[in-house]
């Protein structure tokens, strides 16, 4: 077949030709995109061994095995044939109840299953949060260094992002002065990743309280990516940002990918850690609901 041809000899100008630049640009700033660039830039004649810094694959490394209880629960669910149908778009009630109870253990208030939306890994939780908050002219504050999927997702949603630094001399704490300086009347949220990726830091209770007070002063919500919750290095215990939910509304994002070492199972959540109901009043909850309904319909 000729290039660009329709297979019958004639030249056709296909109207769908060309890359979607938005997707290509967003794809380049994901971890996998950067890794691909790195790997393709290696000198194939260099025989020195390479250390695969991007490795945490539980299938490649059998020492990373989830518990038999977790495996049995999946097998039982499959064999029961009770879960072969379409589930409610927000997720099955027993699963949302379990997540609400599990996260409430570390909070000074009780989450309800209605505060929990199930997602396809924490990745879809990020996608929902950033899609719901994107509106013309809005901006969001992201940590640097951080997890590049936030930048990719923000670009994809036409949501402007601005970076605040994490401070290496202060245990990678948030530069709160920078947050204050960057925010304006169009800022809708700031993101924290705790425990941190890529720095591995764990924010102290006192620091998280300051983050909450700063965000409250600015009138923005906090998106707290806790996908590494309870996987801590150093002496700071893990404190969920939701502890400060009565100071500032928090969207808590998480999944079973890391703590249970099953990233391929693709189960995550987005949780309204917001005992004062600000997210309900400001319609963030109903937008999340519409978003999961829309994704499910697709
Ligand atoms: C900070 C952070 N957020 C979100 C994710 C995505 O998590 P999941 O694999 O559950 O989609 C990752 C995965 O590496 C991550 O490091």
TrEMBL record:
<dbReference type="InterPro" id="IPR005958">
    <property type="entry name" value="TyrNic_aminoTrfase"/>
</dbReference>
<dbReference type="InterPro" id="IPR004839">
    <property type="entry name" value="Aminotransferase_I/II_large"/>
</dbReference>
<dbReference type="InterPro" id="IPR015424">
    <property type="entry name" value="PyrdxlP-dep_Trfase"/>
</dbReference>
<feature type="domain" description="Aminotransferase class I/classII large">
    <location>
        <begin position="49"/>
        <end position="277"/>
    </location>
</feature>
<dbReference type="Pfam" id="PF00155">
    <property type="entry name" value="Aminotran_1_2"/>
</dbReference>
<keyword id="KW-0663">Pyridoxal phosphate</keyword>
<dbReference type="GO" id="GO:0006572">
    <property type="term" value="P:L-tyrosine catabolic process"/>
</dbReference>
<dbReference type="InterPro" id="IPR015422">
    <property type="entry name" value="PyrdxlP-dep_Trfase_small"/>
</dbReference>
<dbReference type="InterPro" id="IPR015421">
    <property type="entry name" value="PyrdxlP-dep_Trfase_major"/>
</dbReference>
<dbReference type="GO" id="GO:0030170">
    <property type="term" value="F:pyridoxal phosphate binding"/>
</dbReference>
<dbReference type="GO" id="GO:0004838">
    <property type="term" value="F:L-tyrosine-2-oxoglutarate transaminase activity"/>
</dbReference>
<keyword id="KW-0808">Transferase</keyword>
<comment type="similarity">
    <text>Belongs to the class-I pyridoxal-phosphate-dependent aminotransferase family.</text>
</comment>
<protein>
    <submittedName>
        <fullName>Tyrosine aminotransferase</fullName>
    </submittedName>
</protein>
<keyword id="KW-0032">Aminotransferase</keyword>
């Amino acid at each position: 077949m000729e290039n660009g041809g329709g297979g019958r000899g004639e030249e056709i100008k296909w109207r769908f030709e060309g890359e979607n630049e938005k997707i290509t640009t967003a794809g380049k700033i994901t971890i996998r995109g950067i890794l691909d660039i790195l790997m393709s830039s290696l000198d194939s004649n260099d025989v020195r061994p390479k250390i695969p810094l991007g490795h945490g694959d539980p299938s490649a490394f059998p020492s990373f095995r989830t518990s038999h209880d977790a495996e049995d629960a999946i097998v039982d669910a499959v064999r029961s044939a009770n879960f072969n149908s379409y589930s409610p778009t927000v997720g099955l009630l027993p699963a949302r109840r379990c997540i609400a109870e599990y996260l409430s253990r570390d909070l000074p208030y009780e989450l309800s299953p209605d505060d929990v939306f199930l997602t396809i890994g924490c990745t879809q939780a990020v996608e929902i949060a950033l899609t719901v908050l994107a509106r013309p002219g809005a901006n969001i504050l992201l940590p640097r260094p951080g997890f590049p999927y936030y930048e990719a997702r923000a670009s994809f949603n036409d949501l402007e992002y601005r970076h605040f630094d994490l401070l290496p001399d202060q245990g990678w704490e948030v530069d709160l002065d920078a947050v204050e300086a960057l925010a304006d009347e169009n800022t809708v949220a700031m993101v924290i990743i705790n425990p941190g990726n890529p720095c591995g830091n764990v924010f102290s209770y006192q620091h998280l309280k300051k983050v909450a007070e700063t965000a409250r002063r600015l009138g923005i919500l906090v998106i707290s990516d806790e996908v590494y919750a309870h996987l801590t290095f150093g002496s700071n215990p893990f404190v969920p940002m939701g502890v400060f939910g009565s100071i500032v509304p928090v969207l808590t994002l998480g999944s079973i990918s890391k703590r249970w070492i099953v990233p391929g199972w693709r189960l995550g959540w987005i949780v309204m850690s917001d005992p004062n109901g600000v997210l309900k009043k400001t319609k963030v909850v109903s937008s999340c609901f519409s978003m999961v309904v829309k994704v499910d319909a697709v």
